[in-house]
Amino acid sequence: MGATEQIKSLIKHFGEGDDERFISSALQIAASEAQKGHTALAQELKSLIDKARTKRNQPFADRSKTIPILPSQRDLKELLDVFQPVIKLKDMVLDSNTRSSLEKLIEEQNNWQLLRQYNLQPKRKLLLIGPPGCGKSMTAQAIAGELGIPVFIVRLDGLVSKFMGESIAKLRVIFDAMVNHRGVYLFDEFDSIGSHRNQGQDVGEIKRVLNSFLINIEKAQSNSIIICATNLPDMLDKALFRRFDEVIQFPLPSEEEIFTMLRRQLQAFEFAEVVDFHSISREFLGLNFSDIVRACEETIKAMILSGKTRLQTQDLIDALSKRK
């Protein structure tokens, strides 16, 4: 691909809001400059790309703008981080059952007024279960992106207080905000407040927070979407499960899903040899999506730093092996 086509591709991906392909195109330009002997420029480009990637990889990185919270709502500032993501379901690699469940929720949310004419409620309370790095938090972004609403990340460190009753009051503030500020409200690492109430090691305030959460989620009638995510479902109090419209499992990626993710992450680049992605995908079953993405990034960086313009299969295998 010539320099002109690379620049066209860069602008195209920027216009589409496709962050991954935009950065891939930028890395390709850096690699091209390295091959031409423009080492300083290539290193500068790589440094800028790394900084951009770091900012966008922060949880729910601000893909357009941060949603302001009014000064009169200071309690919310301490309890919620708010972002407007642009990622959508098409940007995710999901198994068919998970994708179908999420698409159904989006369909119901887009037709909530029609459903309410028949005294029906759209799905809006989800419990996401699965190992780290398998797409639970990213799903909250994708749902918000599909519906054009912000993501409100509940800061659990700000929610739980040592003072009796204060945590419950803060939780009430969050549920009140769901009425006034429609969005996707994410309780990540939910097991930290949703653990069994009969666990002897739990402090009393945690138990009160859980009881309050059960009452609030049962009564919640806002147009907002509540998503709780956990890596430790066995720790959750059993009373929680029936409070959700749906419990969605996020398993580790299958061989086919690893194959799809590898091809998607590396599609902007050529390999120096023919690559058997199916064999690689089979060999590295057990890795999560986050591991795969980082391994692909390392492979691209290795190409740039070596001054080459094509990826090396062994670099990819080495990067994946470090995470197995």
From TrEMBL:
Domain of life: Bacteria
A molecular-function term among this protein's GO annotations: ATP binding
Ranges for domain AAA+ ATPase: 122-254
SMART domains assigned to the protein according to its UniProt record, in alphabetical order: AAA
Descriptive protein name: ATPase family associated with various cellular activities (AAA)
Organism of origin: Algoriphagus faecimaris
Taxonomic lineage: Bacteria, Pseudomonadati, Bacteroidota, Cytophagia, Cytophagales
